[in-house]
Known about the structure:
Blueprint: H1 4-13, E1 20-21, H2 23-30, H3 34-46, E2 50-53, E3 57-60, E4 72-73, H4 74-80, E5 84-87, E6 95-96, E7 98-101, H5 106-109, E8 117-121, H6 125-133, E9 137-140, H7 148-157, E10 161-163, H8 168-186, H9 191-194, E11 204-205, H10 210-220, E12 224-228, E13 234-239, H11 240-243, H12 252-255, E14 257-258, H13 269-279, E15 283-287, E16 293-298, H14 299-306, H15 319-324, E17 328-332, E18 335-341, H16 355-373, E19 377-388, E20 396-406, E21 410-419, E22 422-434
Parallel strand pairs: 7-8, 8-9, 9-10, 11-12
Antiparallel strand pairs: 1-3, 2-3, 4-6, 5-10, 12-13, 13-14, 15-16, 17-18, 18-20, 19-22, 20-21, 21-22
Helix pairs in contact: 1-3, 2-3, 6-7, 13-14
Amino acid sequence: MPTKHEQILQYIENLDVGHKISVRQIAKELQVSDGTAYRAIKEAEKQGLVNTIERVGTVRIEKKHRSDIEKLTFAEVVNIVDGTVLGGRAGLYKTLNRLVIGAMKLDAMIRYVEPGNLLIVGNRDKAHLLSLNRGSGILITGGFDATSEVKELADKLELPVISSSYDTFTVATMINRAIYDRLIKKEILMVEDVLNKDKLPYHLRVGDTISRFHELLLETSHSRYPVTDEQGRVVGIVTAKDVMGYSQDEKVQKVMTKNPITVQLKTSLASAAHEMVWEGIELLPVVDEGQKLLGVLSRQDVIKSLQYMQKQPQVGETIQELSFRGFTEYEKNGKTGFFGRVTPQMTDSLGTLCTGVCTTIFTQAAIRTLRRKRRGDLAIHNLTLYFLKPVPIESEVEVYSEILDLGRKQARMEVEMTSDNQVVAKALITAHRIDR
């Protein structure tokens, strides 16, 4: 029987897109406490089923697939630009396809405003009416209001009219930044992307005996299984090694490894692979918030999936990419070197190289050096920055990475940074390899 939390999630999922919900309403209709309703709504928001908008409330939205994750709903735009909804609240769940900046005359604007667009414009009443009549939402900049005629038309057509105190350039930048962040997330594989959700995996229950383990072994040829309790929650893992020497009538509960490491659907695949390598395990149960079994992730699943990936993330101006963008690579005295300049974005409030950026540069230098020697994805397990001098803004720096020990799975490296032929930073790095 599903728990109250699961019943609420099912209830929300069955609601029509655009339906407005609240904690009090859910608690009253499903006869649960406000706390239970609140936690379930937050879980639904995490799953992409609803979106909460300030001064509007929580609205049921259409769950996005990874193929269109870069698209935003009007409800999300309201949150991004700290906006106020003036009209057309029923259309907040709709997805916008394109931004149009209304810095043109009306006759020219007609060519650009189409259904699914969002017109970013100031207090131009005729432009507002034109946009709505052509099926486009409106974002009014400068904190201006809309006329009652515009608001009534927006409600009738279910097209949102949003007002923001920011200027046109700022709101366009904020929305584009949000879309770009989505693109980065889209390229990062999650556990849910490789998990078979059609059926539960083979597993054992705490009351099963070892004879049941051997039955599954003959049936599936698998040598390890998650163990669940009566509610379907993962409580252990049992392997062929665990059952050796025990009678067929012994309970698996006695021989299993309790409280195993688990992952959730939103865990990145790289993080799961890192956990497997670090802990030396072959199988990770995939669970929900309540530790209920959803599936299993094997090392073979991870390797197979990583074969279709390049380094993560595959696109974007991530902190790593930005920090290392201006560096060029070369060979010197048998060492791999990187040459670059300390830009204003890389400094702290004192105008010297930020410690966090320094460790990012060292990490990137180590990974790129190791990739010349070994194929596969690399996970940094330890970084010790044991020497650091202030490096002023605009300083030219060189980073050298030297491999101290290179094993089949692990490598140790020393990385140092010099400026004006003086050592300004040193670090010792340990990395593990995730085979493809």
